[in-house]
Amino acid sequence: MATKETKQRGRPRSFDRETALEQAVRSFWERGYEATSISDLTRAMGISAPSLYAAFGDKRALFDEVVVEYGRRYGGFISRAVTEEPTARRGVERALREAAAEYTLPGRPRGCLVISAALNISPASAEVADSLREMRLLNIRGIAAAIRADIASGELPPDTDAGALAAYTGAVIQGMSQQARDGAERTELEAIAELALKAWPRRASGASR
Description:
It contains eleven helices and no strands. By secondary structure, the chain is mainly alpha-helical. The model is unreliable at 1-10 (pLDDT under 50).
């Protein structure tokens, strides 16, 4: 009987996986990858370490799943804006406006997980930093592609530097994320967005809206 009871106590307890994953998202979002320990995760997720490893694998595997879940629930608005709007400028304008709102919503961590989780990562976790960097670069490449399409259509002047303008936009978005984490309010981020849009070249002469 004692052996049976010991085995029962040793079994991972049942838990809601989706709820636990959401708590992991918030933990990594608040602290970043490197600063979030297994103890932090088990405490936030309400599960034991054996249950975490059994359900999600190691910390890196859990983080990979967290990034996917974050993108599904909270991220993706930048690429959607650039894809759905008729011009690159309108797409970026929408993305910046939505970033100001998303990065300061009450009741959840501020800023962007894909940006903030990469801070202070040690060389031992270089693959994590590389993965997050690639995600950020995908957004910049998408913006650059939209800018090049507008140059080709005559919406933007032919001498527009698509790569530099896209990189500038990416830098603004990353800066807005950090400003939000430092306590900036939505209106302050919206003011930054308005200034950033002034750096965009004027529409090519004769281009239709």
